TrEMBL record:
<dbReference type="InterPro" id="IPR044861">
    <property type="entry name" value="IPNS-like_FE2OG_OXY"/>
</dbReference>
<dbReference type="GO" id="GO:0016491">
    <property type="term" value="F:oxidoreductase activity"/>
</dbReference>
<keyword id="KW-0408">Iron</keyword>
<dbReference type="GO" id="GO:0044283">
    <property type="term" value="P:small molecule biosynthetic process"/>
</dbReference>
<keyword id="KW-0560">Oxidoreductase</keyword>
<protein>
    <recommendedName>
        <fullName>Fe2OG dioxygenase domain-containing protein</fullName>
    </recommendedName>
</protein>
<dbReference type="InterPro" id="IPR050231">
    <property type="entry name" value="Iron_ascorbate_oxido_reductase"/>
</dbReference>
<dbReference type="GO" id="GO:0046872">
    <property type="term" value="F:metal ion binding"/>
</dbReference>
<dbReference type="Pfam" id="PF14226">
    <property type="entry name" value="DIOX_N"/>
</dbReference>
<dbReference type="Pfam" id="PF03171">
    <property type="entry name" value="2OG-FeII_Oxy"/>
</dbReference>
<dbReference type="InterPro" id="IPR005123">
    <property type="entry name" value="Oxoglu/Fe-dep_dioxygenase_dom"/>
</dbReference>
<dbReference type="InterPro" id="IPR026992">
    <property type="entry name" value="DIOX_N"/>
</dbReference>
<comment type="similarity">
    <text>Belongs to the iron/ascorbate-dependent oxidoreductase family.</text>
</comment>
<dbReference type="InterPro" id="IPR027443">
    <property type="entry name" value="IPNS-like_sf"/>
</dbReference>
<feature type="domain" description="Fe2OG dioxygenase">
    <location>
        <begin position="247"/>
        <end position="369"/>
    </location>
</feature>
<keyword id="KW-0479">Metal-binding</keyword>
Length: 446
């Protein structure tokens, strides 16, 4: 095992914020147990450095006693660098103060450098995560027929069995409960047969209550983060948050089997193949088992998942970074729409999941634009000298309709699901092109 560390703090540094250069990376192998606008083909239609920050220096730092990095947890069979990420603490409100601007800049810098950040859970969130994890375990331990009954033919919410999801043509071993906007059948959007709109088939109200409260809390963090990113980028207020009114936020509650106890449908040791996620932010919690790998932004690796699928991207190549569990923190990575809106300044984070020696539970909340949002790159971000020369998006006139992007991704990932069959059979996909579905806040004419 070889640790490549460098001094993180420069005492006496005169900048407003002493940056923690959070790329302490250790290279190691496993040594102990411990995610286009076109219709998809085939369809017709840190051991953290801690110091006492001034009150205005709100980015970081958990007291050392609260840091509990689960080292030595990398899944067997993988070779990767191990991230030691800085942990940021979000303010109660984002007001645009100098401290907020500095924090926003620090967050943007961290994503551009590492592709991922950690934020500290509040005390309430710790309790909510523990409750959500317990509910997740209670759900996944139900008999298969009970879980399999939790599906809906209109929304993509509900149960996804291990081996049902496909990434780059290979079955994933993840077992999932997906939560999308829980709409009553009487909702006008459901009655108008809008794609992906429908109820969430909860197994019981206890799971619904706990996870709804947790998601609402994560949603608050999502909005704060977007406001901070706007400040960090120096773009107009609302450049990102204008799209998240009635955002199409959703969640994937995940269980991964131990690598020696799979159903054989996928690839040995692979939990989820490499991919990028669809929207703006992914705020995630994981238990102490470990399995997440990400790639840092690189000038050599160019991709745009909304144009050409990034599924399977560099999956077996070198250059992956393992993200060990850190108790009391959420990780935050970026999605396709953040990359698009910022004109490649903030890149979507490629990630994948490996299976470990024990079963693993994680929880990924996706903070998204509204289903009806039609987005274009932020003007102030166009023409800037970005890392991805030659891949600028200024020439895009039509913009991206988030609902179409989301629907394409789910059709692609769940080609055999009842929801996909109904969506296609009822020609719902056609509605995505209508004015009604491309105007934020508009409801169907009754
Ligand atoms: Fe993902």
């Amino acid at each position: 095992m070889k640790f490549l560390t460098r001094p993180l703090l420069r005492p006496g540094q005169s900048t407003t914020i002493r940056k923690v250069m959070a790329d302490n990376i250790a290279t190691m192998t496993h040594s102990s147990p411990g995610a286009g606008m076109a219709m998809p083909p085939g369809f017709d239609i840190k051991s953290a450095q801690c110091f006492r920050p001034k009150p205005s220096e709100r980015h970081c730092r958990l007291p050392a006693k609260d840091i509990n990095v689960q080292n030595g947890t990398m899944p067997p069979g993988y070779k990767a660098q191990v991230a030691q990420l800085d942990t940021f603490e979000l303010p109660a409100r984002v007001t645009g103060s100098l401290g907020d601007r500095a924090l926003g800049k620090a967050l943007v810098d961290a994503w551009r450098r590492h592709g991922i950040i950690q934020i500290a859970m509040s005390r309430t969130q710790k309790a909510l995560w523990n409750s959500a994890k317990a509910e997740s375990q209670r759900f996944f331990r139900r008999p298969h027929h009970e879980k399999a009954a939790c599906v809906d033919s209109e929304s993509y919410a509900g149960y996804i069995a291990s081996g049902e999801e496909v990434t780059d043509g290979i079955a994933d071993y993840s077992e999932i409960f997906t939560i999308t906007k829980d709409l009553d059948p009487s909702d006008p959007r459901v009655r108008a047969r809008w794609p992906c709109h429908g109820p969430c088939p909860w197994p019981d109200t206890r799971m619904k209550d706990v996870m709804t409260r947790y998601n609402n809390s994560l949603g608050n963090d999502g909005e704060k983060l977007l406001g901070l990113i706007e400040l960090g980028l120096g773009v107009s207020p609302g450049s990102l948050t204008r799209y998240t009114q009635d955002g199409w936020h959703h969640t994937r509650v995940l269980r991964f089997p131990p690598r020696n106890a799979t159903n054989g449908k996928g690839k040995e040791g692979r939990g989820i193949g490499s991919h990028t996620d669809y929207g703006l932010l992914v705020i995630a919690a994981q238990d102490d088992v470990g399995g997440l790998f990400i790639r840092r932004p690189s000038q050599k690796e160019q991709f745009a998942n909304w144009k050409k699928s990034a599924a399977g991207l560099l999956e077996d190549d070198e250059g992956w970074v393992y993200v060990p569990p850190v108790d009391g923190t959420h990780t935050v990575i970026l999605g396709d729409m953040m990359q698009y809106l910022t004109n490649n300044y903030l890149m979507a984070t490629p990630h994948k999941v490996g299976l470990n020696t024990r079963e693993r539970f994680s929880y990924a909340y996706f903070h998204e634009p509204a289903f009806q949002a039609v987005m274009k790159p932020i003007e102030e971000m166009c023409g800037r000298d970005h890392q991805q020369e030659g891949s600028k998006e200024e020439e895009s006139d039509e913009g991206i309709h988030y609902g179409t992007h989301f629907t394409n991704m789910f059709i692609r990932n769940y080609p055999d699901r009842i929801t996909t069959a109904r969506l296609l059979a009822e020609d719902r996909y056609r509605l995505l092109a209508t004015e009604e579905l491309r105007t934020m806040g508009r409801l169907p004419a009754s």
